[in-house]
Amino acid sequence: MIVLKRVYLPPLAEDGFRVLVERLWPRGVSTEKAAIHQWLKELAPSPGLRVWFDHNLAKWDGFQQRYREELATHEHLLNGLRQRAESETVTLVYAASDERHNSALVLKAVLDAL
Fold this sequence. Notes:
The structure is a single chain. The protein is an alpha/beta fold and 114 residues long. It has one domain (2-113). 41% of the residues lie in helices and 14% in strands. The chain has five helices and four strands. Strands 1-4-2-3 form a four-stranded parallel beta sheet, with helices on one face. Helix 3 (60-71) crosses helix 5. The chain is globular, with a radius of gyration of 13 Å. The protein starts with a strand and ends with a helix.
């Protein structure tokens, strides 16, 4: 199972394997408080894509398409997460405050489709 969770929420045992899917470490969160098992910067949107999107919801559809194209170049990492999720809960940990428009949602959709 793959679930999503903001890094600013307390980690719980049911989170299972916690994977940070941000390119930059979230502000104000210590490594102990985050309780991250793996940090996959490579699966975060590229700096260029992040700057282009700039959390502008008018660009959301274009962001999703471009991000999916970037993710397609990391098939080995995606397959590894998908395989782990078959035997334990994998929590994709993200920093964005918008819970309906963020890269972790797109990543989860890609993983769920594998």
